[in-house]
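Intended use. Records like the one below are meant for learning the mapping from a protein sequence to its folded structure. Do not use them to infer anything beyond what is encoded.
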Amino acid sequence: MQSTATPIRILLVEDNPADVRLTIEALKEGKIANRLDLAKDGIEALDFLHRRGPFSAALTPDLILLDLNLPKKSGLEVLAEIKADDNLKRIPVVILTTSKAEEDILSTYNLHANCFISKPVDLDQFIKVVKVIEDFWLTVVTLPRR
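Structure written out for the chain above:
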């Protein structure tokens, strides 16, 4: 079990304000201390991860929740860059997207995503999915040290 002495750092890469709000609420209800950072598009996510520009003081996340349908740079492109970078590739990346397309599922796993989850459209189900992600990735799994 993951120790909660140090808060878990999560980078949420999501452009939909409603999904951001729901994710934040679901994580607040959890029992795990976490710190959530937000990137609203693919370029911002990579700037955060590479500590560029306004993110020069950003801390490396323990977990990334990544949408595929992002402006400026797609989630697939972001995932490919993360997994090709020796300093970032060990960060677990959970794909959390509206897509259910087999092509997207295969593409993300081919790029070494850690899991693919289709966002439910139902509000209660969405919150339940975020809680399951939190329970699994933040209490069951042992994450690599930062």
